[in-house]
């Protein structure tokens, strides 16, 4: 039925919704915690919530297809021009539009082993050849990625920090990588988790745009900004690239409530600070529990952590589900011994740790 690339596609596997698990296991939804999709455990920002409530009367109107207010707010916050921004229905949408605009069936698209699942998916969907480069210590082997570039390479995807491994490269490594990429090849630096980076490790892809016109930085409102359900993301690039992307994206790809909420949340500094604090504390809580339990984990710069629970990961995951804890098995990413758990509130993390201890006990 479908074209070749599409026939061979397996769909993106999202974390199980709470209601579905409740039905399957006969549990009450209130007794289930979901730490599977790298969502913000704080609930939405009060400023975003108030803005959405105040906007409901406008639901009969089309949204602003150019996202004027949101682009102004992004421009003011990050010092980029509105003409550099392309808005998307989540950053996934932008990743897909980028791939459609700049690669075709004759192209190769380079990404890392254990890279975010959407890169191979959008590559395959257009019939391009995905080139998966073996990882190094679970992270991107940037040198090997440069070496994987051929005359046919159109795009290179780098997630920094990466999902599902949480690995991150510092500013120097990213910059020397970019310096070695031929200017005709576009680099997508996916910074979905950049807000969680703190202190010295902080890499700001936006600061590199002037020097590297072939760079596209993508970001999202789904993680630290806590708006995953509304689907708002964006890319920042040269105005020429943005102009191409804006020609191809759907005219109203970001809905009205998403625009309103994203614009409002950008001024909620307190929410962003709390998101990062809760995440840093939760990361410590999980790391020390894993250390005590003798479990190895991949040190993570995101809002999630991948822990090695051994050969029985599928059974452990099943036991966690039966205890009402949803995490993400990442065998599909080539990490069959690991489970990826999103950082929750302290009590959610504690419940996960208890459930994991019980699951490990019964499996041994
Ligand atoms: N990039 C990475 C690395 C991600 O982990 C995610 C979310 N899982 C996204 C992009 C897409 O996020 P969204 O579409 O919600 O903006």
**Broad structural category:** alpha/beta
Low-confidence stretches: none
**Based on DSSP secondary structure assignment, what is the total number of beta strands?**
13
Please tally the helical runs, counting DSSP H or I stretches of 4 or more residues: 13
Question: Helical proportion?
Answer: 25-40%
| Distance separating the two termini | 47 Å
Strand order of the largest sheet: 2-8-7-6-5-3-4
**CATH hierarchy, class of the largest domain:** Alpha Beta
Q: Which H/E pattern describes the elements?
A: HHEHHEHEHEHEHEEEHHHEEHEEEH
* Mean pLDDT over all positions: 95
**CATH architecture grouping of the largest domain:** 3-Layer(aba) Sandwich
Give the number of domains: 2
Classified in CATH, the superfamily of the largest domain is: Type I PLP-dependent aspartate aminotransferase-like (Major domain)
- What gyration radius follows from the Cα positions, in whole Å? 20 Å
- What is the fold named in CATH at topology level of the largest domain? Aspartate Aminotransferase, domain 2
Describe the global form: globular
Largest sheet: 7 strands, mixed
């Amino acid at each position: 039925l479908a074209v070749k690339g599409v026939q061979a596609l397996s769909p993106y596997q999202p974390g199980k919704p709470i209601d579905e698990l409740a039905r399957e296991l006969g549990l009450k939804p209130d007794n289930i915690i979901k730490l599977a999709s790298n969502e913000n455990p704080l609930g939405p920002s009060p400023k975003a919530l108030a803005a959405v409530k105040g906007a409901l009367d406008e639901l009969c109107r089309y949204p602003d297809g150019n996202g004027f207010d949101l682009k102004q707010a992004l421009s003011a916050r990050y010092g980029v021009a509105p003409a550099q921004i392309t808005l998307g229905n989540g950053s996934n949408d932008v990743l897909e539009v980028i791939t459609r605009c700049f690669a075709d069936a004759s192209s190769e698209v380079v990404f890392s082993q254990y890279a975010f699942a959407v890169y191979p998916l959008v590559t395959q969907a257009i019939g391009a050849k995905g080139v998966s480069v073996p990882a190094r210590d679970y992270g991107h082997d940037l040198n090997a990625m440069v070496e994987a570039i051929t005359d046919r390479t159109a795009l290179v995807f780098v997630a920094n920090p990466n999902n599902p491994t949480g690995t991150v490269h510092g500013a120097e490594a990213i910059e020397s990588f970019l310096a070695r990429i031929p200017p005709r090849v576009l680099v997508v630096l996916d910074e979905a988790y950049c807000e969680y980076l703190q202190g010295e490790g902080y890499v700001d892809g936006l600061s590199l745009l002037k020097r590297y016109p072939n760079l596209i930085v993508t970001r999202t409102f789904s993680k630290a900004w806590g708006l995953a359900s509304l689907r708002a993301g964006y890319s920042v690039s040269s105005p020429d690239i943005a102009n191409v992307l804006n020609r191809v994206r759907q005219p109203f790809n970001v809905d009205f409530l998403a625009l309103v909420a994203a614009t409002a949340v950008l001024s909620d500094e307190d929410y962003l600070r709390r998101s990062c604090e809760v995440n840093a504390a939760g990361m410590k809580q999980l790391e020390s529990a894993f250390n005590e339990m003798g479990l190895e984990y991949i040190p993570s710069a995101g809002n999630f952590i991948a822990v090695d629970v051994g050969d029985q990961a599928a059974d452990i995951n099943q036991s966690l589900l039966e205890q009402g804890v949803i995490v993400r098995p990442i065998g599909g990413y080539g990490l069959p011994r690991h489970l990826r758990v999103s950082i929750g509130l302290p009590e959610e993390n504690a419940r996960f740790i208890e459930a994991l201890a019980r699951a490990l006990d019964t499996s041994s």
